[in-house]
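Re-run with default settings, no changes from the original entry. Doing this only to confirm the output is reproducible before filing.
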Amino acid sequence: MMLKIVQAGEPVLRRRARDLTPEEMTSPAIRQLIALMRDTMRDAPGVGLAAPQVGVDVRLAVIEDRAEYHTGVPPADLVAREREPVAFHVIINPRLIVEDPTPVEFYEGCLSVSGFSALVRRARAVRVEAFDENGQPITLSARGWYARILQHEIDHLDGTLYIDRMEPRSFTTLENHRRHWAARQLADVRQALGLSEPRG
């Protein structure tokens, strides 16, 4: 069974989700939610899915960047994005700490803003303190694309969408992104869109 991924405009996407209690973290209902979210994320496919995206107002997200998703991506792009496979895992009640605030800008999409993409600046490296699906405390250190995924998903738990952080003039359909922008260098994209160089 796949869950419905709600789209921009749904009120649940604009509220700060509530913390799960220690008892809830390991409850049968949350275990089932995690399994359904995992299957829904993989079916989409996506690299992360937060509970509010399936209409559930709790601070929980699932993350996985499978090696197969990297097939066909130019090696230079993987290097530029600092993107490597990330095994499936769960974060509950996460707290994000920026470790390297160096701004990194790439096109980003979202399963809840289906069919679109835009340039979004994110911190290069972060640390996340959270609980796993067994209610055990975990600390994750991430840089590059993995750090971007974590920031994107935790934004969802705070009621924030990438469109709140995007470079508005870069907003595009996925089709037009592939046709016009995907193969171009970021500096060239910014020049073509009439954007000044981003400040550090």
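The chain has a mean pLDDT of 96. DSSP finds six helices and six strands in the chain.
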